[in-house]
Write a structure and sequence with these properties.
homotetramer; alpha/beta; TIM Barrel; two-stranded antiparallel ribbon; 10 strands
């Protein structure tokens, strides 16, 4: 079932150098660790603005925040949607941080292209091929997360769906896979980062927050991600995790994020 | 992580009797085994019409056939799309069989509602929540396939996305899950049929073709599905599997389908 | 990683007919469904004798009962050990049923060869190669259970360990594999029965009790096992499941076992 | 299914400080990274002696080498057995490195206690409870590897089997788990290191060679293991991987091991 010969545009053979995806004056890939941080979801104007300032001060490069939230249950909080997007955009503008947020349907692409700096495709939509193809027609950087049980092969083929439509600004993200182990929410697969970098020239980032689902694992797993050569990390930061509207138990507080950044930036420089 | 209390509309507690989904003069649920058969994808007018006649003669209740195909690679055959849908519709009309085919994006819903009798949501889109919500606004029967690594809980919550928008015509489908075993394409999980019937009143069918990925396993697995109480089965039938445009190795020939039907219908009556 | 060419003695190519393993006047393989039934563990003289009579009356061919119990925790009930073995032997003698029980270490082989009719190797010891080799030096029928995450390939290679030492009386057992799904204890993989029968001439039985871990799934899964062509089934029966010393929730009561047997024997004859 | 309350002797609640397992003048746990290195299997006197000198020079603390090899197939090389053990012992003596090697059956314990410094229990025997109990009656350090599909809970319960017999010198080892991903041999689960350290006071090491099964992943994964706080690493080193009798593709050459050690020792000091 090796489809390696089928990668074309994402294949390292077609582009020996590592790709660098530029976003304004920032970049993902190319040597400097890119740090994307922010809350799981935008909850209010104050919350997102305060967190944006916090993570910026600590040295984050990008602000993340969910406006449209894919939840297993329709009865769970679904995000602030367009209002959340607007708040995220304002927080980005005020801090100068480019923003990253998840898209859930193709009909929002126009709005996202206008307002968002990096469009995220979540794990559950990794094989929503129609969405991928439509995103391929834009020139926006796309952050494509690995599906819960997607192989590295399949992740690269999904990247190929975007690239074959003309958009080569694809960033891949390892966020844990589903296994029999229930102690953690998912099992972070750092070998996948190495496999992807062998097979492809695209940059790869790691999301230790979703992988582990436990805030106290985020820092050591982030360091491990750097150790295997990830191009960036994506971290959930919340000022009040106990009352977060989603995923509070995997979010770290700003002060802990600061100490993580101090360690990571020191290791690199 | 038990979200059982969160099922509302799909929950057996809210509807003690088994639901029966009616499609014209056919039904899924309610005691008689529903058989959906046809090729993986529509390939030509002759092919789909011949197969439609074949499966009808053998006693199939529904005609299946892919027009829009979700393939891991963008370079694989993607289906005949609208042309395929048209041919499928004609074959359905000529044989009187209601048709079942997969939808891949919300912008096709209008067309599908008009032309299709049962709209299938594939495994890869089981958590494409925006698509589910849009389908929930129609009254069409929806055949919702279990995701590759979705728990029974998550499958029911996805049904809930459709039902909470107003459409309670949901049929669930077990089609194998992803495990470490590589001999079969997926691992058919027949316990899931039992679990779903315990938790929910919705009908459940089984797709042994996709589960095993091996044509010679289809017949015994179909019989096993009936043994655990599945409300229906979905079988890939092709007149020339060796040259099928997709999934040939999991398709059975019409003569074998006939003998399977003879066995199944005898067991039941 | 296909090691199919490495099967020698278990390979169907080396022995086109199905093997039949004879145990006294009983047999496993060869067309008639073999039924092994009894409690998870021997708990007292009265318990095992009563159950032995019960299952015999219902038509079971073999009496099972654990004397040495492999438990995840050393603080859980470990079985009545030699005393349990003695009680099981007496119950077998009194009812005329051959007995099946699990061995946990090579130093017990002498005793088991003398007292036991079919020696079971549990899932956790499927790759305890030293034990397999020692069992290969006897002529006793060995019931080899599939490991929790063993592939069909690996199961057959473990059979090969026994057979290459000279003992070809090997019966294989599918008992569920470990997956991400937590509703059931394991995921019963009935495709494995089909795969094994394709690759090998050895008989295969199914243990729906351990697979599902839920008593109410045992009957339908047993029927499904018969539907795919299993040579036998292994069923946990207990007269007082609520107070069983282990695995009570997956044990059925004698009256339910009787009705299962009525159905199974009717289907076959 | 949380059995956390069942850990007794391995439980951090019973022993708040990290345990340090002493082996001669070496230690595992306690801050300094322990490095265990050597070939998958002992192949000849020259091979093991040369490799022992090599890894010692590079700064390894322990010499590993398989004498008894658990192989999926009985027709694969099974190790040099007692002869291999003798050669490993001599190589250990000549270099002053304590030796680590795998035991496969309880009847070898006497010999292992005499000749071996750390007795390894392999993944396939993690739930060979009789072997664990017998090892619990010695005072030898036991290196217990996580089973292919064992949860962290189960690994700790297996440690408990050893400890409850009186031997608290247990070192745990994460060596990758079995998942659906086939690019790597197993999926290294570094979160497990964090989970174990939270739940238990026992030291944990990581085996990146077996986890990935690919030599070029060993170095970055070893660094990641250090980043999450592993107490040691276990590395397969071979002077001629292309001709190794087993696992050649996951073994690194001595020169690469040297550069890995330079990096690791620098990071720590």
């Amino acid at each position: 079932m090796n489809t390696q010969q089928s990668y074309r545009l994402s294949n390292r053979m077609s582009h020996m150098d590592n790709s660098v995806i530029r976003v304004g004056d920032k970049a993902i890939g190319g040597g400097r660790l890119a740090v994307i941080a922010g809350p799981c979801s935008v909850e209010s104007k104050e919350q997102i603005l305060e967190l944006a300032k916090n993570v910026k001060e600590c040295g984050a490069d990008f602000l993340r925040g969910g406006a449209f939230k894919p939840r297993s249950s329709p009865y769970s909080f679904q995000g602030m949607k367009l209002e959340g997007l607007e708040l995220l955009k304002q927080a980005g503008k005020e801090t100068g941080l480019p923003i990253v947020t998840e898209i859930m349907s193709a009909d929002m692409i126009g709005r996202f292209v206008e307002d968002v700096d990096v469009i995220q495709v979540g794990a559950r939509n990794m094989q929503n091929f129609e969405l991928l193809k439509e995103l391929g027609k834009t020139t926006k950087p796309i952050l494509l997360k690995r599906g819960l049980s997607a192989t590295v092969d399949e992740l690269l083929m999904s990247a190929e769906y975007i690239m074959s439509e003309g958009n080569s600004n694809v960033i891949l993200c390892e966020r844990g896979i589903r296994t029999f182990e229930t102690y953690t929410r998912n099992t972070l697969d750092l070998s996948a980062v190495l496999a992807i970098k062998k097979l492809s020239h695209l940059p790869v980032i790691v999301d230790p927050s979703h992988a582990a689902g436990l805030w106290w694992m985020v820092e050591p797993l982030a360091k491990a991600a750097v150790a295997v050569g990830a191009d960036g990390i994506m971290i959930e930061v919340h000022n009040d995790p106990a009352n977060a509207k989603c995923d509070g138990q995997q979010s770290i507080k700003p002060e802990r994020f600061k100490s993580l950044m101090d360690v990571l930036r020191k290791d690199i420089s």
